[in-house]
Amino acid sequence: MSIIQVERLSKSFSYYEKELGFKKSLKNLVKRKSLIKEAVSEISFAIEQGEMVGFLGPNGSGKTTTLKMLSGILYPTSGQANVFGYVPWERKKEFKMQFSIVMGQKSQLWWDLPANESLYLNKCIYEIEDKAYNLVLDELTEMLDVKDLLNIQVRRLSLGERMKMELIASLIHRPKVIFLDEPTIGLDLISQKRIREFLKHYNQQTKATVILTSHYMADIEDLCKRTIIINQGKIVYDGDLRRVNELFHAKKIIKLQFTDEVPMQALIDYGVIIQHDGMNAVMEIDKHDLQRLSKMILDRFPILDFTIEDIPVEQGIESLYQKDGVRHESLAEV
Amino acid sequence: MSISLSEIRKHVRMFYIFAKNSLLGYMEYKANFYSGLIMETVFLFSKLIYIVFVFRLGIEINGISPDEMMIFTGTFTIMIAIYTGLFMDNFYRFAGHIRNGTLDLYMTKPLSLQFMVSFRRVNFAFPIPNLIAGITMVVLAWKRLGIEPSLIHLAGYIGVILSSTVVTYSVLFLPQILAFWTVKSGAIFDILDKCWDLNNMPMYIYPKWLRRIGLYVVPILFITNMPSVYLIERLDLVLGIWIFAAPVLSLLVVRMFWKLAVKRYESASS
C-alpha cells in the first residue's frame, strides 16, 4: 500500500481585486467583490515508501498548497488524502510526531539563540529520549558539517548554515515522511549541492519518503527519479523527469559552428532557427528527418562543428506550462 | 488533542523551556531589557501620582475608602505585571504569525497550537516594576485596613488572582482570534487596551448597567475587581460563584472560537 495517497484533492481560496487609486480603495472599504481561485484542482497521485518525488511548477501553480494540505496546515475544499494511515487535516498528534515540513522561506529557529537551544526545544516537543537525541544530533551535524556552529546565535549564521540547522531541526525526530518546500531557495550553488547530497544520503539511509518542491531544476534532477509537474492547480505530468521530452518526441536540437559566415535565409528550409549570429546557429529539427537533414547540412555548409542534442528538460517543461489545462490532461501520463 | 496528565506535564515543561528561551533572548540584548524596565517604571510612577492624590485627599467613592482604593490599584498593577509578563508579547505577535505564515510551522508540531501561540514568549522587563509596586501597595493597604493576615486569606487572594488571570487571557485573546479573518488586528488591540484601563478604578464608580456588562458579558471588570472585592470582604454569593464560573466559561468560549478559526485557516502565501 502507498504511504501517501491523494484522490481528487482540491483547494479553492476566496480573494478580491482592487483597482489602482484612492477612490477604488474607498469603494473597496464599503464593498468588495469576492472572487474564487482554484489553487489545486482534483489532483490524484500515490507515493510509495522511500520514494523521493519532485514537485515542479511555476509560481502559483499549487505546489505549496498541495504540501500544506498533505501536512495538515490547510483543509481541502474537496477530495481525500491519506498519509501513512492518517487524514492530515485531522491534525492528530500521532501524525504530527512522524512527519516534518521544511519551508525554505520560513524559520522555526529562535533567531536570538544558538541553534542548539531550538534543537533542544524540538527534542522536548517530539518527546525524544536523551540517548536517541544525542545520537541523531551527532549524526546529522556530522553529515551537514555544522557541529562547530551549534553554539552560535542563529542570526549570526549564513543563509546556508541556517538552512542546514533548519533541516536538522526538522529531522531530529526521524520523520517517516518529509515535505521539503524550496529548501535551497536563495542559497549559492555550493550550498545547494551540499544540501542535495545530504538529502540524497539521508533518503538512502533512512528510507524516508520525501516530496520536494523547488524552482531549481538541478534539485529535482539530482534527487528525484519521479517528478510531478503541476500547472494551474492540475497535474500535467507524472513520471521520470528525463522523459518529459518524450511528450514532444518529434524534435531534436542541432548546434552548428561554421568556418565562414552563413546567412539565416540559407538555413530556414531545414528547421526552426532558435539562435543565429552568422558563424553559429542553433536549430530545432524534426527527429524523423534527422539523418536526411543532417547529411544535407553537412554537405551544403562549411561546418566546423556539429552536435545533436535532446530538447532541454526546461524547455519541455516550459512548453507544458504554456499549454492550457485541458490539453495538458491529454498530454499527461496520468 | 486529548487532555491527559502526561500532556499537561509536557505542556508545563514546554512553558518552562519557552520562558527560559525568552530569558536567554533578553539577556542577548541588555540595552533593550534595561530600557524596557526603565520605561515601565516611569509609566508606573506617572500612574502612582494619581493614586497619591486620591489617597491624600481622602475621598471615599461609593463607600470605598482610600485604603481600599489602594487594594484595587495594587491588584490592578499586579494584573498588569501578569498580563505584560505572560500574554502581551504573544498577543502582539499573533496576527504576525498569520500574516507571515509562521503559524504554518507551529501547526505541524505535536503540541497544542493555542498553547504555543499564547505562551511562546515571556516578558521579563515589564512585569518587574509592576509586580514590586503592586505587591507593595496591596501589603501596605492590607496592613492599614487591619485585614487578618491569615494563610487562608492569602491563599484565597492568590486563588482569585489566578481566576482573574484566566479571565484576562480569555477576554484579551478572544478578539485576537479575529485575526484569522481580518489578518491585521492592531485596531482590535487598541480598543481592548482602552477597555483594560477601566480596571484602573473600582467598579463601584461605574453605573450599574456598565458594571453588569463588564462583569458578566465581557468580564473585563472582573480582572481587577474580583481579587480586590474578595480582600475587602464585599463578596456576595453571586460574585463568589462567578469567581469559579467565569474562568471556566470564558476559557471554553475561547477554545471553541479558536477551534472554529483554525479550521478556517487559509495560511499565508509561500
From TrEMBL, chain A:
The domain of life is Bacteria
A molecular function (GO) held by this record is: ATP binding
| InterPro entries listed in its UniProt record | AAA+_ATPase, ABC_transporter-like_ATP-bd, ABC_transporter-like_CS, ABC_transporter_ATP-binding, P-loop_NTPase
Keyword list (alphabetical) reads: ATP-binding, Nucleotide-binding, Transport
Q: Which Pfam family, any one of them, does this sequence belong to?
A: ABC_tran
SMART domains referenced in this protein's UniProt entry, alphabetically = AAA (SM00382)
Instruction: Pinpoint the ABC transporter domain residues.
Output: 24-257
Could you tell me which PANTHER family the record lists for this protein? ABC TRANSPORTER ATP-BINDING PROTEIN, ABC TRANSPORTER RELATED
Instruction: Indicate what this protein is called per its UniProt record.
Output: ATP-binding cassette domain-containing protein
Automatic annotation (TrEMBL), chain B:
Checking InterPro entries in the record gives: ABC-2_transporter-like
Q: Which UniProt keywords apply?
A: Membrane, Transmembrane, Transmembrane helix
Q: Name one Pfam family in it.
A: ABC2_membrane_6
Residues that span the membrane, as ranges: 37-57, 69-88, 122-142, 154-174, 213-232, 238-258
Question: What name does UniProt use for this protein?
Answer: ABC-2 family transporter protein
Can you name the source organism?
Paenibacillus terricola
From the broadest rank down, the organism's phylogenetic lineage runs: Bacteria, Bacillati, Bacillota, Bacilli, Bacillales
